[in-house]
Design goal:
The chain is of the alpha+beta class. The protein has 2 domains: 37-44 and 155-172 and 185-343, Beta Barrel (Thrombin, subunit H); 62-138, PDZ domain (Pdz3 Domain), CATH 2.30.42. 15% of the residues lie in helices and 47% in strands. The chain has helices spanning 3-17, 21-27, 72-76, 95-105, 292-298, 336-343, and strands at 38-60, 63-65, 68-70, 83-87, 90-91, 109-116, 119-126, 128-129, 136-137, 140-155, 161-164, 180-194, 203-208, 215-221, 224-229, 240-241, 251-260, 263-274, 285-289, 309-312, 315-324, 327-335. Strand 6 and strand 7 form a beta hairpin. Helix 2 packs across helix 6 (336-343). The radius of gyration is 23 Å and the shape is elongated. 39% of the residues are buried.
């Protein structure tokens, strides 16, 4: 890149600042920046609800009919991980919608439109009449929603945009990223901890308040879930700069985590290793918990702590994203710039 190009980029970024923080995030690169970007690190556990765009096939099974066992889903070519979006010309997003259409069609031939490996497939099937309950069935186990507990990494005071988890929400059976139709984050209180052990990841246990919506989800990506707060921020905190990637280094750091009630505490960790930048892998650095309080309470990193912000030298550098199953004291962190780029796509 020559000096003229660098000067042009600096001027462009300066103009974008006048349009607001979110515009800056759209242009903010992973490895360097012209202006310091600030966000509020959160570390608060929340309930997360996600409703899928279409219904996800998580398996198939045989149906007992008067003529014997049949499996229409398998026979028509449906596979685990397929996302059914339409039956004939009708869009389907819920299990109830699929079931209602099957009853209306009464075993007539139908066209199924599905997404498989990011490509559309067209299939033809006939539902079978189940002998035990008299309902027409396809023989496919399907899922239309998921819910769990996770941690909010940051929010942007100027825009209300937030990022959480540091990894995507995937179907528990197929391990595929759930297609997002809609979703929200809810207030949660951590009611208990199942500590992690070698070979067995632990988890936070939480209680959701379903009567209150803190924010709406906009995207579910490999780098986290992102959305916009419904009103003013429910959390308080001080804005901090986001560190450029080249400032993240092996050494002392801290995480903000909520492992009891609604209290967020700061715990010491070590960034053991910073990995070379990779577009396909969000595990940007190896971390190890060193804080004795956290080790005694959770055994290290447990499910539900994903999204806990990682701070180093007073700046946000990333978020906890995965735990090492064989060693719950260790895990991986995602660089904050990845999450901010996804957030900028809102």
């Amino acid at each position: 890149m020559n000096d003229e190009t660098r000067t042009w980029m600096g001027m462009a970024l300066l103009r974008v600042v006048l349009l607001g923080l979110l515009g800056l995030m759209l242009l903010w690169p992973l490895t360097a920046r012209a202006d310091a970007l600030t966000v509020v690190p959160v570390g608060r556990a929340v309930g997360i609800k996600l409703f899928s765009d279409g219904v996800v096939v998580v398996g198939t099974s045989e149906i007992d009919t008067q003529n014997g066992l049949v499996n229409p889903a398998k026979d028509c070519g449906l596979k685990e991980g397929d996302v059914i979006t339409h039956i004939n010309s009708t869009e389907v997003d819920t299990i109830e919608e699929v079931s209602a259409l099957l009853q209306q069609l009464e075993g007539q031939s139908m066209r199924i439109r599905a997404i498989r490996d990011d490509k559309q497939v067209q299939l033809t099937a006939q539902a079978a009449l189940c002998a035990s309950d008299g309902a027409y069935k396809l023989g496919a186990w399907i899922r239309d929603s998921m819910a769990g507990i996770g941690t909010v990494t940051f929010y942007c005071p100027d825009t209300g945009a937030f990022g959480a988890l540091g990894h995507g929400i995937s179907d528990v059976d197929t391990a595929l990223l759930m297609p997002l139709e809609s979703g929200s984050i809810l207030p949660a209180s951590v009611s208990g901890v199942e500590p992690g052990k070698a070979g067995t990841p632990g988890q936070l246990k939480g209680i959701f308040d379903t009567s209150v919506t803190l924010g709406q989800l906009a995207v579910n990506t490999d780098n986290g879930v992102f959305g916009t707060l419904s009103g003013g921020s429910p959390w308080t905190g001080q804005e901090v700069e986001v560190a450029p990637r080249n400032e993240v280094k092996a050494g002392a750091a801290t995480i903000l985590s909520n492992i009891s009630g609604d209290a967020v505490e700061e715990y010491s960790i070590q960034i053991v290793k910073v990995y070379p930048e990779s577009e396909s892998d969000c595990r940007d650095f190896l971390i190890q918990v060193t804080d004795q309080r956290l080790l005694e309470a959770t055994g290290g990193i447990v499910q539900g702590m994903s999204g806990s912000p990682i701070l180093q030298d007073g700046k946000l550098v990333g978020a906890v994203t995965h735990v090492m199953v064989d060693d719950p004291t260790s895990g991986y962190g995602i660089y904050a710039g990845r999450m901010l780029q996804e957030c900028g796509a809102l």
